[in-house]
Queue: 2 jobs
Job 1
Amino acid sequence: MKTDFGTAILSGFDYLLENYPEVFVIGQGLWSPWYVGTTMTDLDKKFGKERVIDTPVSESACTGAAIGASLTGMRPIIVHPRMDFMLYAMDAIVNQAAKWSHMFGGQAHPGVTIRGIINRGGEQGAQHSQALHALFAHIPGLRVVMPSTVTDARDLLIASVLSPDPVIYIDDRWLYSQTDELEEIVELDLSKEGPECLMEGNDLTLVASGFSSMQAREVCDLVANKGISLEIIDLRILNPFDASKILESVRKTGRLLVVDGGWKACGMASEVISSVTEELELGALKSKPLRITLPSAPAPTSATLEREYYLSNDRLIDCIINLVR
Amino acid sequence: MEKPDLTNPKNFHSPINVSGMDLDLLIKFYESMSMIRKAEDLLAVKRRDGFIGGPVHLGAGQEAIPVGVSPSLNSSDFVFGAHRSHGHLLALGSSLHKLFAEVLGKETGHSKGMGGSMHLWDEPSGFYGSVPIMAGTVPLAVGAAISAKLRKSSSIAVAYLGDGAVEEGIVIESMNLAKIQKAPILFIVENNLFASHMHISLRQPSSYISRFADASLVPSHILDGNDVVEVFKTARNSINDIRSGQGPQLIECLTYRFYGHVDWREDVDVGVNRSMEDINDWRSRDPIKRLTESLLEINETIEDKLNDLNDELNLNVQSAWELALEDPFPAKDKLLEGVYA
């Protein structure tokens, strides 16, 4: 039986709350079905409102509280149903969670998981749309995780919560309806996870994360029909970033395309291309590396502009054909 | 009868009321406050003389607060500090040598030489971190309290913060969250009337901050923060209530720091409502001086004992410093260690 991405996240929460008494969840909307889709349905009823805590409208205090609880041995998950609002918690995330281990000589362990949901489209506009993974991937001390597959949605959530480090786990609601077969749960060591090849090919290395990786998978067959063999690498772990698999792939294909759902400047696509090209042998590329990102503007509300703003599969296919041709 | 204005440095110069207090405990207070004062005064001199490379925020004058609070805490509680936290840590019985070593950036320090004066950690003493971002640890302390509640342990959290920190919105959020969660936490506001160089009258419409607790229905107490016995009694009662599950409380302690905001100069912030006259008046409200006078009132023969104690403390402080000076710095490969667990 196939499971959808949202339900896979739910089963991750279920596993964690069932097996680890030190896990608790805190955040806005956790007792409401519409804040977080199907990803947390009835957890409060099953595990109690003491461990699944719906909160005041205080992103900063709740994130700080989750960090403080983690210092005393708990494994909290703080949920931000929209990443845009999570910016209120930047001090807690950047100044506190990311710094405490190093700053206290490795003695403090803020093993908190900070779940930020990307929730865009539908004419929601500038402050209800952002994909801010690159912002967090800039910070040493944070692990930044972006699942794209149904299995990763569940298993990387579990790995994040079991990690002794602060983890930003980012899931995109545009991924929730995809379905796949779920295997048995495997408890992964997050520090050993990194980018993975989702599809092997010879003509072009396409690197992406989250929803962009799903788009890459969606166009893979369509470009194969045009004789282009894509190698798709899903980033999965954006920080600390390990470029080695991508480098290896580009040496084989000679072409690199990075598709990212964030902005271009100082973004994840830039990081991937720099990390690969500064290691790559001169002459190893058959074409210039290319970034496809959001336009450098806030998200619009009007539907016509929104269609322009987000990358369509058709436009992605055109870019791929142009690059390989 | 209404109390005279605690913010006026002309008031509260007389000895403190120690009636009914155990003499040994009072001497412990004296010893702990004196040790902290001597440590801070030594740090001031060593910073001035170039031994210490980074900033030190000294709390000389404010010792009665942590010394009055700490006897009601134990090592399974969670204490959080801020930039001016040497006293918060030492009052818990934490190692002075490790504090000096940390200030000097030595690997034997509380934070293994990675934190310095502003970033202190001593889990065995129940000290869960101090940081210089204003109010940065306040929500963390609420989380530690929520964790104690979830585990049904008797631990409580203590958040030390200042009158400047309450101007950060996060403090209001934190008190509201603590109250709605019935979290076992004591907020202790050391109201020394200054945020860096700015007097509270230039920053807030009132010189008392406990009105912020009222908004979240957090019970609060305003007291003379330079009276170690009053701090002790109030904190003990609050902590008992909090341990028994009655939710958060706030204690506002009016006090004053003898040094400027940072480093060794007492006159550094003078000019923005901080005059040498005020500083001298506040020295008449010195918590150690007032306790000494009280002790001598009840027992004249105690002077010799206090003198002996002072000699011993001087030696201890000096030898802790010398030991720390000899300690090694962190190896260069520590730079990239500990970013992740």
Job 2
Amino acid sequence: MTLTATRFDWVRQLVHRESAIVLAPGKEYLVEARLLPLARKMGLADVDQLVDAVRSRPRPDDTRQIVEALTTNETSWFRDGDPFTALTSTVLPALQSARGPAERLQIWSAACSSGQEAYTIAMLLEDAMPNAATRVSITATDISREMVERTRAGRFSQLEVNRGLPAPMLVRHFQRAGSEWEVSPTLRRMVATRECNLAAPLPRMGPFDVVYLRNVLIYFDLPTKQAILRRVRELMRPDGWLFLGAAETTLGVDDSWSRVVIGRTSAYRPLKGA
Amino acid sequence: MTAIDAGPRRRAGDRPPAVAELIDEATVTEITEQAWLALVGEDEVLVPLPAPLPADTLSSWVGITGPWTGTVVLTTGRDTAVELTRALLREHAPEVLEDEDVDDALGELANVVGGNVKAVLPGPSALGLPEVGATPPAGSPADTLRVDVLWRGQPLTVSVQSPLHTEEENEVPL
Amino acid sequence: MTVRALVIDDSRAMRRIVTGTLEGFGYETRQAGHGQEALDVLHEGWVPDLCTIDWNMPVMDGLQFVNAVRTNPAWRAVTLMMVTSESEHGQIVRALAAGAHEYVIKPFTADAIRDKLALLGLLPQEVSL
């Protein structure tokens, strides 16, 4: 059983549009292997049925899961590490001088997937400031209950900790738990999790000093992108910082943000009075 | 952990714990499957079903020495071992596979599975170098954890076995 | 600029896999079957940017090799990355304390090697899926 050429083409175009990654012809087997678990989870017999179902009734959550299954970035810790470098080099010093010592910094990892982003932020802050656990709270949200539960558990397979997590951070912040690795209780206490659909009205949270909303907007049409950015902005402090994915921008979508270049990445800040 | 109810052949107090108290079948299966998915191929799933091994088998094994001492043994049909070697090496495979290539590949898989099994057991422990042959060292039949799986429809077994103890030497090994 | 790697593992299958992966990223490679053989390559004057190092090997194991490399200031610029099935927390700590920079646990995928090289600034070209 191999994926038909038309269906493979549809997947190729989707992945290219959403992630800029090119799936070369001949990678049909890879698409099959990576999408079969997703098809089964949706109660479908094979990848052909999955492609047909999503093509005829596209939903952002389904297309996101397809792209995530086929692109490897989201399971990596520090790959595309510039938005993390910017946090400790620029954002944290700015926030520390603007806030009182007793004020708790609030950070949001929106669309947290299995939790690598939230715990990467937690590790960086724990290493960068004394008593980070009492001075920072990280909120990790995802639309998928399964992902939220995985994030809350803070357990990762051997293959997952092999993906872009620096070895010194692994030994500092993780312990073995059977055949898996478990993030330290200190880091888990810094991260609060909840289910959240970004495309619907958001629960009361924040206000956030920093928001990581990476590789989410690409899955939505323009009006939904605008609505998401507006809702995110309402949950942010006026001098907060927003990080988007490398292929995403507010430019041409929502003009109430100013773009700040930090090293090789950009952050977006709410424009005053916009 | 103390072995209180570990079978009639155990003497209390002077024996290391039984392997089944230290690691379970699900963990051994998970470790083996991760090795296959990462090294053999991302769609190379292992199906947890027992099936009889063919007459002509090849085994590879590594010793673990520490609070628990024993051997981790992989066994599969000789033809399956050849196919496994090709799958492992993929485009890096030489045109003609020699016996030495197959021994080496199966030995390396025992090293990978054995190293990860060791990490789940109480430590500190040392891992030996892999060995390969038709007849692996005999383990204690009463103190062996064995997982049977199918890879591409062919049987493969992974055993975590304590050494054969003196009073068991007259028994027929499994 | 060519990036050079010395792949040290007693398994020739594993040497082929690691070598093939690195060459796919544009590396020039050589291989050694144990630590002493690897030291001989360095003494010969072929000093790589990266060594990938198995732990359990005959003659000289990976940890002894790391210690030996760290005693020679001429090899200070060599990045040492363990690639081994030794996967206890304590073993990783030992290897880092001896002077290894990174640690990849076997089993690994090519993606895992690529991510680690990116962290180390040793990925010569951006490689996609």
